[in-house]
Structures are given as C-alpha cells and as structure tokens.
Amino acid sequence: MNLSFPKRPAGSGLRRSAARLVVLGAGLFTALAASALDYGPFSLVGFAKYDATLSNNACPNCQLYPGASKDEPWGDTLVPGAPYGRQTASIEQEQLWAGAHFDLGHGFELDGLMSQRWQFGKAAFPGFLFERNVSVHHEEYGSLEIGAMTTRGWSLADYPFGTEIGLSYAWGSSGAGYGLLTGALRYTSRVFDVAGGDLVLEATYDRGNTAFKIHKPSFSEYWLQYHHGDLQFDGIVQNTRNGTPLAFAQSPFTGLTPFPADDAKLGGSGQSIVMAMARWRVTTPLQLYAGLRRNRWSGAYAVITQYQASGSIWNDMFNVCWNSDVASCANNPGYAATSTDWIVGGRYTTGPWSFYSGMMMLGKASTANPSPRAQSSANNWALLNTLGAEYDFGHGFKVSATAATIHFGQIGRSPMSMAANSQFVAADSRVTRNGNSLTLEAVFAF
What we know:
Elements: E1 8-9, H1 13-29, E2 37-39, E3 42-58, E4 85-105, E5 108-119, E6 122-123, E7 131-138, E8 142-150, H2 152-162, H3 168-172, E9 180-188, E10 192-194, E11 197-206, E12 218-228, E13 231-241, E14 270-281, E15 286-297, E16 304-308, E17 311-314, E18 337-350, E19 353-367, H4 372-378, E20 382-394, E21 397-408, E22 434-445
Antiparallel strand pairs: 1-4, 2-3, 3-4, 3-22, 4-5, 5-6, 5-7, 7-8, 8-9, 9-11, 10-11, 11-12, 12-13, 13-14, 14-15, 15-18, 16-17, 18-19, 19-20, 20-21, 21-22
C-alpha cells in the first residue's frame, strides 16, 4: 500500500502561506453565523482546515526512488548533492459527517452516519470512507453498530488527545495500530457507575477484506473509558492478524496487500498495540496529558507478487532481513519486533487563548533481526517537542501557531514506530539528527 502523508511542498515561502491563512479566515468569517445543519432527523457537520509549515532541515528529493517504502532496500539510495534545508509545505483538509437519528420508542434509537475526509480535494484514503454505519442504542442495553468506522486507537489519540498538545498527527499516526475499519461490528456498553465514576466498555471486530481465503484478516479492539471527577482514562487494546504490515496507525485495516490474488504467495503476519491515555484537569484552565503505547509486529517476509515489463511488484513487508544484507537470510524473512512509545503534555486556557506544549518519545525496538538495516531502525529513537498558542474567535473558527522540534538518537533509518524516514517535522533521519518547524493553522468547524 502506498502511504500518503499530509505534506506537500508549497514552494512559495511561509509569507504566502500566511497570506492564504488570512484569506481563508476572511472566507470563514462569512459563515460564522452558521452551525450544524439540521433538517428533521438529518444533520450535517464538518470542518475545513489549512496548515502552512516551514521546516528548516528538509530534503524532499533526497531519496532516489521516492515511491519505495522504508523496508525496501532500494529506498535507502540517496541522491548525492540533493538540495537540503528550508522547505515550506501546506495541507488543505476537509471532512463532512452526514447523520440521521430516529426515536424508535421504548428507549431505543436508530442512527446512521456517513463521513469522508479530503486532502487537496481528493479522498484522504482513495476507495475508503471514514464512516458508513448504522447503530441501535438503548439507555440500558448500550449500542450495537455495524459498518465502516474509525478505530478508538487512532481517533482518540488524534483528537482530542494529541490535537490539544500539538501532536495529533505524530501520536495518532505512529505505531502498530490501524485507523479505519471497512465492515466492523461494535458493541458499546451503557455507562456504569463504578467507584464514584463513569465507566464505559466497548468491543469491536472486523474481518477486513473477506476475499482473502488463506490468510484471513481479523481485527479486534477493546476500549475502556473511565471518568472520575476531573480525571479521564482511556485504555485500548488492538490485536490483528493479516492486515497490511505497517507502522502507520491511521491506515485502513484490509488485508496483507490490496490484491486478494496475492493470497497464496504470502505468509501470515500480525501486529498489536496496548495503549493508555489519561487527561487530568488540574484547575479550570490547566489540563495535563500522559500516554503510553506498546507496539508489537510479527514481521512479514518480502516476496515478489507480480512480474511486469516495467518491473517487479513486491508485497507489503515489514522488518525484513534481506539476503543481500545477511547471506543466511534466504527468502528474505520478516522478524518480530516490539517497541514502547510515550507522550506527555499540558494545555492552559484563558479566555479565547490557549497555550500548549507536548513531548513524545518513539522508543527503540527489540528484534532478533540480524540485518544491519533492521538494527539501524530498531536502535534509533525520536523525541518530538511542541510549543504553541491558539486563539478561538468563536463560532467554530480558530487559528494557531505551533513550533516543533525532532531529535533522533542516531543517523540512520527512522525508529520502528515511524512509517517513513521523514514522516514528522520533514527531517530525514538518514541525513540529520535534528529538525525544526513552525506551523500556522486555521480551522473552521460547524
């Protein structure tokens, strides 16, 4: 699967991007009187966002084969003398949720929801919807939902947890989880009164791409949320088999590759996460955040699935020991790996202003893979820091500025929890240990 990360060179500097933010803000102010659109049982809500980011240590054209994944050795080839330094990038993003709600009587309610996200006018994940589901709710029995939906492992990590400390993309889209489900069944309990607090339990199951008959996909997720006064705790466990092997936790859960015809040519694989996140409102304006995530990958060996005149097509692989690296690694096996990531932060709100800071560590991995390439990734780590301010104009319109830094433990392939070598702050770990960025953002939600 080709991963699409939301950064695109603007090529015109931060001042032009800032001017575009002003234009966007002016346009959004014309709609400030708007709110969620409701018509009988139907509703429509959404948001539009524009980011402009200036990075100081970027090398967008360093990789000779830009389409190669981190696990493909030909992706290591760098272009000698490629321009390296300051870069401006931008992202335009929109998402709409269309819902319907019906009261069935006797405490039962029926809901339908459909949503999609676009980046630069195109679907964020072509061929996938973020949500398309129906659910039945009862105040005593809980709710049962079926269809396409987002996972708790991605959605809660992204928003509100990561968003409120400037690390939504970095925390939500790293690690061994998945973000989108295509045909899931989810049960959410009613709220239980436990030790003076509110407890909700949930279980989700998805079969992924059912056209795979040999290596059948299987996704299970369990979520626990507990509120007690000013403390909220979320515990999440994902356990999967035969999804696409990756470290991009926003990705859809489908099958080992996008093509079921590859089934007989592949070996099985699996990955999982165990994650805990807590938010504590210390005082009315001050809120603290802390999170911990354990990642596990089984690894996936590399094999050619198709031969074409333009070149061979490989499967989606992970943590491979290539025969070209180690002579004993015949058939390019994949090795298991585990890693631990953590995050902390705080947010202070006074009037329309909010000030926030976050720190996230993507830790070293443990693996028996003897390949020097694999050890380069396993022994690396990344520390991300953010410091930012946000102003809320009201009526759904906010602007913010976020400064971010990244520091790698060593020059080499990025940590196992990162899907690409330059996924965050635009700094490529193969050519630099440090990177800085400044992001200006405007968001309008209705």
